Amino acid sequence: MEDTRRPAYGAGRVLIVVYAVFAVSASARSGVQLIRDAAEAPVAYTLSAVAAAIYVIATIALAHNGRRWRKVGWIAVTIEAVGVLAVGALSLTHPELFPRETVWSQFGAGYGYVPLVLPFLGLSWLWWSRPSRIAAS
Questions:
Q1: Where are the domains of the chain?
Q2: What is the mean pLDDT of the chain?
């Protein structure tokens, strides 16, 4: 019987590394912004902190392949996808709400649009690496 709870491999490991880089960079950036300039753009900086927290949770969830962590991963990455789409659209239609950029502003333009693509790669990986699919193959 094949072990379907094996850790991430191949492209999954690369995806986890990218999530980890975003978790660290978004956490550091939002931390500095909130400590130094919180009153300047409280909504934008708080959203950056929320994005950072989601990246941290998604990184941990994607790195573990247990049933509970996969559920957490699905939830975190789905929230990330909705967040980047919502904040991206709002930052274009209502720029006054975002006097400073967030990780998700303009669909992640400041980060080469990686924040726009990343949740969909995460959701795809969660789908293709699901234990029931691996066990069936």
A1: 11-136
A2: 88
Report the C-alpha gap between 72 and 9 in whole angstroms. Answer: 19
Whether the predicted pLDDT of 132 surpasses 70:
no
The 10 Å CB-count burial string (b at 16+, else e) for 67-98 is eebbebbbebbbbbbebbeebbebbeeeeeeb
Q: Report the sign of the C-alpha dihedral through residues 42, 23, 103, 66, in that order.
A: negative
Q: What's the pTM value of the predicted model, to 2 decimals?
A: 0.87
Rg (CA), the chain: 16
Which percentage of the chain shows pLDDT scores above 70?
89
Q: How crowded is residue 130: how many other Cβ atoms within 10 Å of its Cβ?
A: 15
